[in-house]
Each structure stands twice: as structure tokens, then as C-alpha cells.
Amino acid sequence: MSTIRDVAKEVGCSTATVSRALSNPEKVSKANLKRIHAAIDKLEYRPNMLSQQFRNKQANTIVILVPDIANLFFSTVISGIENVAQSKGFNVLLGDTRDSSEREKNFIKLVETKQADGVIQLRPYSEDSLLPKKFVTAVNACGCENNPYPAVRIDNVDAAKQIVDYLVSLGHKKIGVISGLEENPHTIDRLKGYKQALSAAGIKFDPELIAKGDFTLWSGLNASDHFIRMSNRPTAIMCMNDEMAIGAMKGLKAKGINIPSDISVTGFDDMEFAKYSDPALTTIAQPAEKLGEKSAELLFQLIEGKNPQQTEHILPVEFIIRQSTSAPKN
Amino acid sequence: MSTIRDVAKEVGCSTATVSRALSNPEKVSKANLKRIHAAIDKLEYRPNMLSQQFRNKQANTIVILVPDIANLFFSTVISGIENVAQSKGFNVLLGDTRDSSEREKNFIKLVETKQADGVIQLRPYSEDSLLPKKFVTAVNACGCENNPYPAVRIDNVDAAKQIVDYLVSLGHKKIGVISGLEENPHTIDRLKGYKQALSAAGIKFDPELIAKGDFTLWSGLNASDHFIRMSNRPTAIMCMNDEMAIGAMKGLKAKGINIPSDISVTGFDDMEFAKYSDPALTTIAQPAEKLGEKSAELLFQLIEGKNPQQTEHILPVEFIIRQSTSAPKN
DNA sequence: CTGTTAGCGCGTTCAT
DNA sequence: ATGAACGCGCTAACAG
Fold this sequence. Notes:
The structure is a homodimer. The first copy, chain A, is an alpha/beta fold. Chain A contains 11 helices and 12 strands. Chain A is elongated and about 90 Å long. At the A-B interface, helix 4, helix 5, strand 2, helix 6 and helix 10 of A face helix 4, helix 5, strand 2, helix 6 and helix 10 of B. The structure holds a DNA duplex.
């Protein structure tokens, strides 16, 4: 592979001129410019970016820390990040952490060792978080309340409250929940909204109505069992994401329970599949792609050394009513 | 940020010794080793990987070219690639091409310019492919027949044939297809299998029975219309992926058509959702994660300069029978 | 507009 | 076991 020196030799000029021809062509004479490009073509010269990055002390790369790449919500956020990164000429390194601190640490090290210029964390902040960290430019996307470093997120408390408010307005009084893992910040925030709405409606909180899941389809199916066994079933179930809602509906329907006439079900996220489930799912639409874009924009401001005046952005959600909810029977 | 020189100065040794302490600790005296690590801790020294990569002429990075990251099948393949890359100490750069040649070109350039050591292409080979390319170590994953560079894939022709064979064995004679875009190699291969199976069963091919989709949920819903309008409907529909099958089932059910008693429906891929659709989908399970792992292993062999004896790997699929298929009525 | 020079941080000789 | 010196490919500073 030829280097900038080979090109210079071929043309009969200095390497500086070749370098300039590539980055500041206006500072090079037309004649040289032409000969240089001819030489580049002839020698199939490709600038060595490793050298450039080394020289410029910039990798032009950002890292995304994602708990699970094979999750549609996350991959949509990533799509949004990628949009902005491309327009900035940055590459996106994928850090599939699988909820392992070890892996997360290694990806963060990429920033400490200059292989990447910043990181976007898709996991919400909690006690065991490795971020924020010295020397590591970072932004949190899709997190929760009280994130101690720059963040872009939705208001989970309010979103959950909207769902329950709506169910209450339909006449539901006994509203079950299929939650995520209990220490998960999303679970905490959304449960908080659930309780606020109940309280506003004068309904007493009943821990029996909370079934634990882990955001997977299977856990939703599994959790539906908890309600099926109850003698006095809830008339509605708020699921903390769409996957669990779809799993739960599968479980309920298998027992001959009709949705929504026997039990209403709601989701959270509005993934593409929510429209196509049977019945179509009433859910909260998160602006997944926007979350990605906004967080990337914020990160680039940080990387460029600008002090963004606003370090927490809360994006609006949309409550989407479909066919999985209705008023309870009498 | 401190450099290797600062550490050397702190310890009172040469940079060479520090360098060795990090990469060949056995060549350094215990005493120095200890003092060097102490100095590293004190100065918070982190080796500059940009410099290392430049020096070693290796970025320790591979690129994945993926048409659409927000697609569950692809993200599962990526998961598999990531598994292997991590164990090799390589980073994974995400190239979300959105079917744009321009973007694809830019990502391939990363390899030409040394920012990455190799590339895994998730889009099947076709006329307009930018790969194979000189100076670019590449592997194709999830492709089709006649891929002109190293590849890992399934046998799409045979998989489609299996589906149709099964439908025929149930007694179906009029079998519709919801296909992908017609130039798409997957469409071509799967259609070939469909035709082979028909031919083996002595059933004449009828182009009227092919409805065109584009692998999205919506296109499946849309294509179902084509069959609903027909006076003499097929008794089974083979969809070229699970998304379209789920979309189609939505459309059919909306018109009061029962699945499978009125029309059987099959998918392709076996994504997680296939189990949870209503009815659960009969489909071909692609070993998505395995495809990723195997292709990554093949790529690393190429990168390491080993000449793999086998440059095309065909992985087995599994035909999974669920509730969306049955014998036709009467 | 162009060339010369120097150095980014590291690893690797080749000595000792 | 250790250090001095060099150079990877490129760009910025300076001089002309």
C-alpha cells in the first residue's frame, strides 16, 4: 500500500503539498492539484487514517453502550444516533454489554485510551453505574430521573400516570401491573407514576396486583399466570413494555380470557409490532429515534468543547389508544 | 493525560522498559514491574491506543455492513459477531447502510484506510455489490447462492422447498407466496425452492399466486389484500419472512378469515415474536446468532492471514411447526 | 504557493 | 534486564 511519500515522489513535490491537496485544496496550485490526483489514482493511494487519527488525537468515533442489541427499542435508538454520527463524519462503535459490568468497563476504556471520543449509555443510571467518569465524555439516553451526567430521556413517571389515568377514566378500579425487575430504574419510575395516578383517583395501592417480569416476551406470558390464578382478577393490566404485553395477551387468550372485554392490556414503547398484535396494543410511543438523535447531538456538543446550556432533555411521549383497552364489563 | 514517558520519568527508567512491562512483563525485573505499576496508578496513565494502532498497523476493529439495524434478525446476527469479536479483543464498528451504496462505500473505505481490518457484509451479493474489493478483507453472512467471496449462509432454496413440501403433504394444492422485492437474492432463492417443490408435487406454477412485499410488517398486511380479493383463494400462503407473515395474518383475520382453518400461513426466520403471534407461526428457524459467529470466525482467519480451506459454510435450518398451518378444509 | 523540519506516542531493534 | 535511538504516516509551523 502506498503512502503520502510515494505520491509526493511520483509528482515531484513534498509530502506537505500532497497533504494540503487533500485537506486544503484551495492552498495548492491547480497544476499540482491535478498531478497529485493523477498520482493518487495511479498508485491507488489511500490515506492511512490510523496515522491521521494519531496525529490529530481524535478517533472520530463514538461508542454506544447497549444492554442488548437484539432489542428493537434499542436498535431504533441506535439508528437515530447513527443518523447524527454519519452527518458529523463520526463512526459508531457498538458496545453490546449484555448487562456485564466487565464488558461495560472495557468499552469505556476505549474512550480513556483515545480509541473513541465519547460514549452514549443506553442503560439508565443506578448505584453500580460506571459513569460518569473522569476523562470520559458521556451522555445518557433513555434513562430515568436524577441522572448525574448529561442525559436525554422521557418522563417515565408521567407516561405511566397517563396510562393509568386513562384506564381509570374508562372505569377501571382494579389495575394490575406487569413490571420489570424491581431495582430497574424504569420499573421504579413507572411504578411511581402508577401509584400517583391511583392516589389521585382515590384507589388504594395493592401489592398483590404487581407481577414481576423482566421486559421479555416470555416473562410477560409467565406473569399473566399470576393474574389468571387470582379469584378476583384485575380488569386491566399495565405492562411496562410492549413485549411483556404481547406475552401476557398470549397467556390470557390461551385461557379464554378476552381482550379487552374481560381484561384491558396496555404496553409501553410502541414498537412496530404493537400495531400488529391481536388486538392492537394501546401503548406509550417513545420517540426512540429522536432519543438517539438528541443524545448524539448533545454528545457532539460536549466533544467539541461547547458547554451546552441544557444538559437534560426530556422528550415528549405520545399515548396511543388502540384496541387492547376498553371499559370494564359492568 | 500522561504518556509512557511520564511514567518512565517517574520510575527513573526508559520508556522501553515501561512498554515491555505492559506487553512482555516477563522480560522486566520484579522490582521495576512493581514500581512501574505504582507509577501508572499514580499518574493515571492510559496507553494511547491510537498510537499503538498506528504503530502496529492494526485497528483491531471490524465493520459490519447492515442494511437495517432496527431489524431483529440482523441484530441477532450482530450479537453473534460481537461474541466472537469480543473474545478476539476486536471492536465492532456498526455500518448501518440503509441500502445506500454511498454509505456502504464509506464504510468499506474504513478498511481501505486501515481504520478497520475487515468487514462482514449482511446484504446478499448482487450485481451492484461493492464487494469483493481489492485490499478489503471481507466475508458475507446471510447471503445466497453464488457469492463470489467467502460466505456463511443457509440454503434458502432448500428451506423454502421444505416449507412447501410440508404444505403439500398436508394436502394443499393452491399455495400463495408473499415475496420480498423481486430482485432481492433471498426472494430469488426462496422462489426457486417454492417452484422446485411445486414441480416435484406435479403442481403447475401460477404467477397470480405471487404477491410482492418488501419484508416489512406493513407490506405483509398489504399483500394479504391481493389474496383476499381473489375469487378462488389459495389455502396456504408462504411468506418470505416472519414480519410479513404476521402482517398478513393481521389482514386476513381482519376480514374474518380463520388461520389456519381457512388459510394456512408460514413465515421465515423464526424471530422471537413468531412464537407469540396468534396463531403461533409455523416457520423456518435461521441460526441467526450462529451465522454471525461463524462469519466472524471466518473473517478472523482471513485477517490473520490463514488460508481457510473452506470459504463457504452452509448452516442448517430448522423447520418449526406451530399453529398457523393445518390441512385445508375438505 | 511550496518545501523543510519536527514531532505526535509507542514498540522495536541493537547495543550494553 | 535495560536504554538509546529510530521510525511508523501524517500534519502544523515556519520560512521562503
